[in-house]
Design brief:
The chain is mainly α and 217 residues long. Helices cover 78% and strands 0% of the residues. The protein is built from eight helices and no strands.
């Protein structure tokens, strides 16, 4: 049982609970859908650990999760861009993801991780994050970044996917550095990236809840 309690599962579960508390009454269906996404994420993480222990291969679990991850993230970016009338800009990323995902599956099947798909998706999400910040800077309306849920949600995405892209580029070098007898450097880097992602998202959910409460008051 203790093998299912990892930094990843703990961070995801805490973020899921915060999402339930802060977003369950939110009027925006896209933000509220983050509850469902985080629930699926938690289930996937547990299933991945189980598959690794039982079948010694959990790549298929995460391959099935990739379209879900891409869909919810693209929906959120579309929601963020809608304020600037740029919501259609996510369609190109969705089309690219579908093409690369199908190529990966046709090339090597479901039981080998879709590395090209994840790398492509990561680069696209980094570009979308930077584009969102460009839209913020170009907008004349004042935005208090400290209390902006959109800013912090995007910050988590930017850190996680940029870090993941860098790690994938230097994967062999990071993999060769052993920190403990069982874990290499990339293991700890990805754990840190997950904690940063879910910390930023948790704070964004909290600020979304604060905004809703202040509007009601």
């Amino acid at each position: 049982m203790l093998s299912y309690i990892t930094p990843n599962t703990f961070a995801e579960f805490v973020c899921f609970l915060i999402a339930i508390i802060c977003l369950k009454k939110d009027s925006n269906i896209i933000w509220k859908s983050m509850i469902l996404f985080l629930l699926i994420t938690c289930i996937t993480e547990v299933a991945g650990i189980y598959a690794a222990k039982t079948y010694h291969n959990n790549h298929w679990v995460y391959n099935l999760f990739l379209p879900i991850e891409a869909s919810f993230t693209l929906l959120m970016f579309g929601n963020l861009y809608r304020k600037y009338k740029k919501s259609n800009s996510v369609l190109a990323g969705a089309a690219l993801f579908i093409c690369i995902y199908l190529y990966d599956l046709i090339s090597h099947g479901l039981y080998k991780y879709n590395f090209l798909t994840f790398t492509t998706m990561s680069v696209v999400f980094v570009l979308y994050s930077l584009y969102y910040y460009y839209l913020i800077l170009s907008d004349d309306q004042y935005l208090n970044l400290k209390y902006s849920p959109e800013f912090w949600w995007t910050m988590g995405v930017l850190f996680f996917y940029f870090g993941s892209t860098v790690c994938n580029i230097f994967n062999e070098r990071l993999y060769s550095v052993m920190i403990t007898s069982n874990h290499h450097l990339s293991y700890f880097v990805f754990k840190a990236l997950n904690i940063i992602l879910y910390s930023c998202w948790s704070y964004s959910f909290f600020t979304k809840w604060q905004t809703r409460i202040s509007e009601i008051s």
